[in-house]
Amino acid sequence: MNIKEAISKLYELQSKLSAYNHAMSLIYYDGATVAPKKTARNRAHALAVLSEETYKITTSDETVALLEFLDSHRDELEEKEQRIVYLAIRDIKEMKKIPIEEYIAYQELLVEAGDTWHKAKENSDFELFRPVLEQIFEFNKKIAAYCAPEVHPYDYWLDKYEKGLTIEKCDEFFATLKDRIVPLIKRIGKAEQVDDSCIHGDFDEASQEKFSLELMKIMGIDLGICGLGTTEHPFTTSIGSHHDVRITTHYQRDNFASSMFSVIHEGGHALYDMNSDDEYAYTFLDGGVSMGIHESQSRFYENLLGRSEAYVNYVFPKVCECFPEQMKGYTANDLYKAINLVTPSLIRTESDEVTYCLHVMVRYELEKRVMSGELEVKDLATEWNKLYLEYLGVEVPCDREGVLQDSHWSGGSVGYFPSYALGSAYGAHLLHKMRESVDVEKCLAEGNFNPINEWNREHIWKYGCLKNPDELLRNALGEEFDPMHFIKYLEEKYSKIYNI
Amino acid sequence: MNIKEAISKLYELQSKLSAYNHAMSLIYYDGATVAPKKTARNRAHALAVLSEETYKITTSDETVALLEFLDSHRDELEEKEQRIVYLAIRDIKEMKKIPIEEYIAYQELLVEAGDTWHKAKENSDFELFRPVLEQIFEFNKKIAAYCAPEVHPYDYWLDKYEKGLTIEKCDEFFATLKDRIVPLIKRIGKAEQVDDSCIHGDFDEASQEKFSLELMKIMGIDLGICGLGTTEHPFTTSIGSHHDVRITTHYQRDNFASSMFSVIHEGGHALYDMNSDDEYAYTFLDGGVSMGIHESQSRFYENLLGRSEAYVNYVFPKVCECFPEQMKGYTANDLYKAINLVTPSLIRTESDEVTYCLHVMVRYELEKRVMSGELEVKDLATEWNKLYLEYLGVEVPCDREGVLQDSHWSGGSVGYFPSYALGSAYGAHLLHKMRESVDVEKCLAEGNFNPINEWNREHIWKYGCLKNPDELLRNALGEEFDPMHFIKYLEEKYSKIYNI
Description:
Helix content of chain A: 55-70%
Largest sheet of chain A: 3 strands, mixed
CATH class of the largest domain in chain A: Mainly Alpha
Number of strands of chain A: 3
Strand content of chain A: under 5%
Number of domains of chain A: 2
Structural class of chain A: mainly alpha
Shape of chain A: globular
Distance between the termini of chain A: 70 Å
Oligomer: homodimer
CATH topology of the largest domain in chain A: Neurolysin, domain 3
Largest interface: A-B, 42 and 42 residues
């Protein structure tokens, strides 16, 4: 085999695996959106086979020999291929540490878990979900033990979602936030409260959907490539490559802002996924590099842009067009204040920017303890409620609005949540940097997202998985990441809104 | 290898292939329903890989050796496994005759063809579709030449969709129908025409969708297993097994009966697919055995039941519930007559039971001539219009309502259409037989489909692909199939409606 042949085989391999990814992402998306309700087992069957096939292709002797050959000729490869080989070897080494039967059993469990979680949430019954969740945490511990027996199992998973992240770093990061955010929340609590009545009312689903598509267009999302679906819990997924991306939302009849900001959030994920360099399609470099960077983009669009005064002023007439009756008598400023109401609450995805990180901290704390063996899954609901009272001062009335609210654990994601808070903070620093060359306020005031998207494309999106998240971020920021930008952003914005 | 191991390997193989089928059916369904519009190429990529993988698994030395081993021990196998081995060997022998590059190229072509056909139909421009359609017919000829060089290429495809069907049999069948149906249409044409104003009006999509789900429930379709989607052209597909089936419909704002009968038609297909014996799931025996039998079920529900006086009397109050304003002043009898209006028209899927076979004959005639090399694809639109004038006496105003109306050719199906007419005729004979033991009128009058479905399950559905269509039919009918039952049914029903 010569280098040229080997590189060609490498691209064939990636192309093949992307077709399996296409199938599996679509089966997942279908299950969450339009699939009939009693078909989870049927999907589990297909996913089990396809993930076994993926596993076999990825870890086959032929694949390993190919990658080792290429790795031994690393210096003759371009940066792109070097990175592909590096990522593939890293993943295969890990995959080979997990026995295939366990890998398949876990995939099967996750399909059923999604179904069980849905039912448990509907019935607000944690006990229904508990046995499956116990298995999921057990699998997470086992996989960590197989792959990185030398580190704390939670460190393994934190690093998995955000290369380089550890309990130590999280503890420090969250402590910094807590130090300044808790006092800020207290000051806001004592100030005169804002009126959020304009986002409440009766908003039919068809109008909300129309509005969602309008929001996507304003963001510069090509609707010919990015679809919009409806699910219990909003999410974004690529289907096989960045040439087909789907976002979902959840419509609340009595609050149009809920779906509005879900759409902008998921739209941020979608823009990141859709804008990998075109030559990365059907390769391991396609799509976002980490959950932290992903959330930096989604929360950037949702909060830093979507909840800004300039954007709200621009979008308000469109809100009035979609909901003329409901918006009667309200101003853009009423809407701006309503969507920035700060109040300790129960549901993370509907919480404000300021208290949001406390919601994340609850989950971080609980995951850390379960993964450390200090807390049992059976006690998760009780502990959840205790921490919500301690951190946010709210009483959790039922599991549906408590421990069952997020889909993450049912999808096997343990260690993902910290990246939401981290992403928020990355975003604020990125905005600070972007302002050096882009007049962000002017863009938002005019509803022109092009210069903003262009900056993100040039500094973040186009790289796909070419760089590790820390390198990507340093490269974009021109300096080390500093969470103080986020804290200052929150303090300035909310001091003004609340006159404190 | 012993027999027991070999049988176990056989089931593993089928289970694996059903997962690939799951993925490919879902990719197709997604593309036709919710996928963003500019993602066809991305789907083509995944489908190309997955069909290549399917091809490789199916034709691998390992698979062939397994099947040959089992075939050489045929006498030791149960009927079920004998049939599986027979079907698999038959398909593999054929697959191996088609060069893999051509097989893959054809799959890729079909994905793009769907897209091109949509655009061409939207623009009513046959020339846009022509180059792709030429390739499709070429592929069909080539595949026939590879697989059965000894027979007429159209005979090959007729047999593919309905085992045993030939040009000779079709010519005879269609001649019999023509002999009696053309005079019937003439007599109806001279009679007093019925008023179909009650099915026309303004019917919003949401109400039509609600009504569709109600119709499915009445038919005894489990909505937890069978989903309903919206597409340009209605169809039914299983996703991986009979445990997940999807039907689609197309809503016409000005005519609720169009979608109503699409739903009942596709619902008939779905019932057949969903009711294979449970132990056939994830095997080659799962689902319907042929297009003719499939159409015998779909057209049975659509016409023999759905357009009957007893059913219309039962369903009329439900129509009024869904469309109270539009139905004001109309009676069940008005609806019965409206949905049985006989009039030579342009669109096959919206045509009445009596003229329907003439629509099919146009397509049969054209396919036969193209496959024989007597007609070129470039002349199809002109010939289509000529035959519509000759057979049905109608002028085709544009390609959208002419040669571009059906999706079949864009999906590669050449030789499928005759099975619609054949299925209609099978259905009439089956109904004749069913009446010996089931009081069909009473069931319909009470909206109780259970005894009807039970008869179909016992005589048709449960067998899946266990028997060849002719054997299955003979077994269900207790005698040879006779198209005169269909002719008599039409003559009796329409003589009464039209007082002739």
